[in-house]
Amino acid sequence: MASSSSRPGMPGAGLVRPAALYAATFAAMLAMSWSPSAADESKAAEGARLYQQNCASCHGATGKGDGPVAERLKTAPQSLATLARRHAGTFPTEYVYRIIDGREERRVHGGRNMPVWGTYYGLRAQGQGRDAPDTETAIRERILALIEHLETIQVGYTAGAGEAEATARLLERHLKAFDARDVDAVMAAYADDSVLVIPTGVLQGREQIGDYYEALFAEFGKPGTVFKLLERTVVGNVAHIVWSGETPDNFYEYTAETFAVEDGKIHHQITAFRTVAR
Ligand code: HEC
Q1: How far apart are alpha carbons 239 and 108 in whole angstroms?
Q2: Which residue has its alpha carbon closest to ligand 1 atom 24?
Q3: Measured between alpha carbons, how far is residue 259 from residues 17, 174, 222 in Å?
Q4: Label partner for 23 (CA 20 to 30 A): which of 128, 164, 196, 205?
Q5: Is the beta carbon of 54 within 6 A of some atom in ligand 1?
Q6: Are 72 and 16 a contacting pair, CB within 8 Å?
Q7: Ligand 1: does its nearest atom lie under 6 Å from the Cβ of 77?
């Protein structure tokens, strides 16, 4: 069935059975699903409620695609618990937003088997009173709450690749900054309460860590310096590198550094190396 419907705001659904069944389901959803004030509800709780009211009938209570209405649909609804897994380990926020909203999706791709929730939430938001958010804001809030809920039901996915990607990017920036012997760029990756453990002690805070890099770059900035990255590993928020090198002053036979990243900064760094003076 095409998604278009003669009544605006009645999203089409791919039911094989008579449209009446769908209309009844939808009417029941309309009757139940609106609570005018969501202000005292956390976003995740709102998302969970909206999910049970608007999505579970098809996608199943736990998102596995096994809702009671699912078997009457021409196209089986996918499991929403594997969205991240099916998108290379990263929850596909933009894609999911577009699919739930559905207005743009329908314009570009034509028919679809899922209700157009952007239209539905828009209609529900109208006539909510003067101090209610405008329609587009209301729609966005609901979709984002749903997305927040969907992220919590992902299986085989723990903070995962999204986090690892961010860690890998931070490490890459750090290595580039090190390569350029640029103390300011290096220090951009540290927070005020960062801790750097080196063989001779514990450095705490940006000032001490900054002084350490100044000294390090004074040595590694000398002509004839060699730096060789031997290993680079990223797991979640932890990065590990191994390198060797030499400066006119020292041989660095084997240096292992472990970085724990928090809120986009290197929060802990443990560096182990052995130098041999030339
Ligand atoms: C009437 C049944 C039905 C309801 C209710 C429904 N969906 Fe769907 N949904 C589908 C079907 C069927 C598909 C498969 C795509 C298609 O055929 O359009 C789908 C696809 C999706 C997709 C894409 C999945 C993927 O793996 O690409 C997402 C995300 C989604 N739905 C989210 C939701 C959310 C969130 C709600 C509640 C606001 C919801 N759906 C309510 C039937 C439904």
Answers
A1: 41
A2: 78
A3: 57, 11, 26
A4: 128
A5: yes
A6: yes
A7: yes
Mutate to test the pocket of ligand 1, among 59, 73, 80, 154 (most ligand atoms within 8 A of CB): 59
Q: Token digits for 146?
A: 């749903």
Instruction: Supply angle C-alpha 16, 22, 28, rounded to 5.
Output: 160
- Tens of pLDDT, residue by residue over 120-179, are 999 988 876 667 778 999 999 999 999 999 988 887 655 455 678 778 888 998 999 999
pLDDT > 50? residue 35: no
| Tokens representing residue 140 in the block | 């966005």
Query: Is ligand 1 within 6 A of the CB of residue 146?
Result: yes
Are 216 and 227 a contacting pair, CB within 8 Å? no
Closest ligand 1 atom to residue 79 Cα is 26
Please name the residue whose Cα sits nearest to atom 13 of ligand 1.
Answer: 77
User: What is the percent of the chain where pLDDT is above 90?
Assistant: 50
Summarize the confidence of residues 59-87 as an average pLDDT. 87
Q: Indicate which residue's Cα is closest to atom 23 of ligand 1.
A: 99
CB neighbour list of residue 229: distance below 8 Å, 6 or more residues apart: 175, 241, 242, 243
